[in-house]
Amino acid sequence: MEEAERLCDRVAIMDHGKMIALGTPDELIASLGADQIVEFALSNGTIPAGLEGLPGVKGVRPGPDRIALTVAQVHRAVPALLALLERQGAELSLLTTHHATLEDVFVALTGRQLRDD
């Protein structure tokens, strides 16, 4: 099986005209410390305590409408997250998972979404 064709070998991430990261897409994604993202939101809009201590969680990034967890093992992190939320009596309004992307790297480095000013 042939390896998928790549659009580019190296990527520079720019923020306000300054280069803040340079590397291959795989290197930049690896800089997150894990390759899976779990995004969730609570119906009351709060951020639960104790997220950093969940199994496999390498990073916590609160956003305007959801919280993103960078995780090494999604199969361990999601059940632990659900148990934590149940203990705290929190109600989920959103739960998604995806492989980390270059957009996740940009947000982690700048704290802003690509569409923010």
Describe the structure.
The protein is α+β, with helices and mostly antiparallel strands and 117 residues long. It is 25% helix and 32% strand. It contains three helices and six strands. It has helices at residues 25-30, 74-87, 102-110, and strands at 11-15, 18-23, 36-42, 57-62, 67-71, 92-99. The strands form two sheets. A four-stranded antiparallel beta sheet has the order 4-5-3-6, with helices on one face. β4 and β5 form a beta hairpin. The protein starts with 10 loop residues before the first strand and ends in a 7-residue tail after the last helix. The model has no long low-confidence stretch (mean pLDDT 88).
Compose a concise summary of this entry.
The protein is α+β, with helices and mostly antiparallel strands.
